[in-house]
Design brief:
There is one protein chain. The chain is an alpha/beta fold. The chain has 14 helices and 15 strands. The structure holds pyridoxal-5'-phosphate. The site of pyridoxal-5'-phosphate has 14 residues, from helix 5. Pyridoxal-5'-phosphate binds next to helix 5.
Length: 412
């Protein structure tokens, strides 16, 4: 929507005021560019299609259809699935019960419900400068003041800045964080910062929305313990089966203090009555069969290989002075190029001339003057195969060679 167009529509068609404050996500805008033939895309956050568990899904579909025809009916949220989620969370050090869980259509809906519960119009919220665009889309309906804090590519959110904001009078409805496999930066929040964030949230009595769609995809050592393991009353945890099984199931969950789940259930019912009953039964059946842990091991090993291929290619691809994150979890890494390079403009050259695509940093930033975002890119390594990653990085390398007069001169 062009600037001003929303307010004209609002006056002529009588639309509500929020239409002036929201926009399409940059991902949607990038789709036509990415749909061009022969493009190698590092742009979107898609899981690998080769790793979809099609056989396990097909077995579960047939078992559910023959054994549980009520799976096609309206129904109450699956207690069996909630019990599996309780066990999954226990494996990460989180104690919760079924009454604290609300099943949702993916992490996106979970965040949207929690935001609707906590955020009044025009209130403040704390979030990172570089932020998952789906979050901005959700909160923009409420026209909040987003108090932004920077993110360090090695240790995550600047928690000292969060503390400073609270100390100097900010009164946010919540703090939004992605502590594992941050989208877009690809960093895990350090242990020290986790403890401090929890302490600050308690001292100022500010809830945290902990978004964790990548938390089960950890590539080195064990998974990080979620913030929710430590704070039951102030952390709203969000999980998802999108990256673990398949996004088209549209199945996720939130864990909230038991006293508020009734309100979340009302918001959920008002929004879409129920999370797809069929998907709930299918996933419960898959988890019952013990399929998930071997599957997760396979995903972690394969995504770790792809990450390593991309990391190995970076120094020979990006211009001198570029720096990047080394993700221990999730789907993305973040490269900051020298300040003079505008990656939004570069994307057109990359896609049209070299048939390779990435997400420019500005897609994740609300401030058009942010130099760091302007000269950065987010690269996805989960979707393309190892050989496509190698080929895509070669293409990027030749682009930098021709357009900046130098090749193979990355740093770190
Ligand atoms: C931080 C974050 N939240 C939410 C989503 C969407 O997840 P879901 O498919 O579970 O709604 C994504 C996916 O890209 C994400 O990276």
């Amino acid at each position: 929507m062009k600037e001003g167009q929303a307010s004209i529509l609002r006056d002529t068609v009588g639309l509500a005021q929020w239409v002036e404050f929201v926009g399409r996500s940059p991902m949607q805008d990038a789709l036509p560019l990415l749909a061009q033939p022969e493009i190698i895309s590092f742009a979107l956050g898609l899981p690998s299609p080769e790793l979809f568990p099609t056989e396990a899904l097909s077995r579960a579909c047939s078992d559910v259809l023959s054994g549980h025809p009520q799976a096609l009916q309206y129904g109450v949220p699956s207690i069996a699935l909630k019990s599996h989620i309780v066990s999954l969370m226990r494996s990460r050090g989180v104690e919760c019960n079924e009454r604290q869980i609300v099943l949702t259509c993916g992490a996106q809906q979970a965040v949207s419900l929690i935001v609707a519960l906590l955020l009044d119009r025009r209130r403040e919220v704390i979030a990172e400068e570089m932020c998952y665009p789906g979050f901005r889309q959700v909160v923009n309906f409420y026209q909040p003041e987003i108090l932004e804090v920077p993110t360090d590519r090695e240790t995550g959110m600047d928690v000292d800045r969060v503390e400073w904001l609270l100390k100097t009078g900010a009164c946010p409805a919540f703090i939004y964080a992605i502590p594992n496999g941050h989208n877009p930066i690809g960093v895990n929040l350090s242990q020290e910062k986790r403890s401090k964030l929890l302490e600050v949230s308690r001292r100022y009595n500010v809830p945290i929305i902990e978004e964790d769609p990548y938390g089960f995809l950890s590539y080195e050592g064990g998974s990080e313990t979620p913030l929710r393991a430590v704070s039951e009353d102030l952390v709203f945890y969000v999980g998802s089966f999108s990256k673990m099984i398949a996004p088209s199931l549209r199945l996720g969950w939130l864990i909230a203090p038991e006293k508020v789940t009734g309100y979340l259930a009302i918001l959920k019912e008002a929004s879409d009555i129920d999370t797809t009953t069929f998907a709930q039964h299918i996933v419960a059946c898959m988890l019952e069969s013990g399929f998930l842990w071997p599957h997760l091991r396979r995903l972690r090993a394969e995504y770790q290989r792809r990450r390593n291929v991309m990391l190995a290619a970076l120094p020979g691809t990006f211009p001198r002075g570029s720096v990047w994150s080394i993700p221990r979890c999730g789907f993305f890494l973040w490269v900051r190029l020298p300040d003079e390079i505008d990656t939004t403009r570069l994307l057109k050259i990359a896609a049209n001339e070299y048939r390779v695509a990435f997400m420019p940093g500005m897609a994740f930033c609300g401030n058009r003057d942010n130099k760091g975002a302007r000269s950065s890119v987010r690269l996805n390594f989960s979707n393309p195969s190892e050989s496509l990653i190698e080929e895509g990085m070669l293409r990027l390398g030749s682009m930098f060679g021709s357009h900046f007069g130098v090749a193979s001169i990355g740093q770190k």
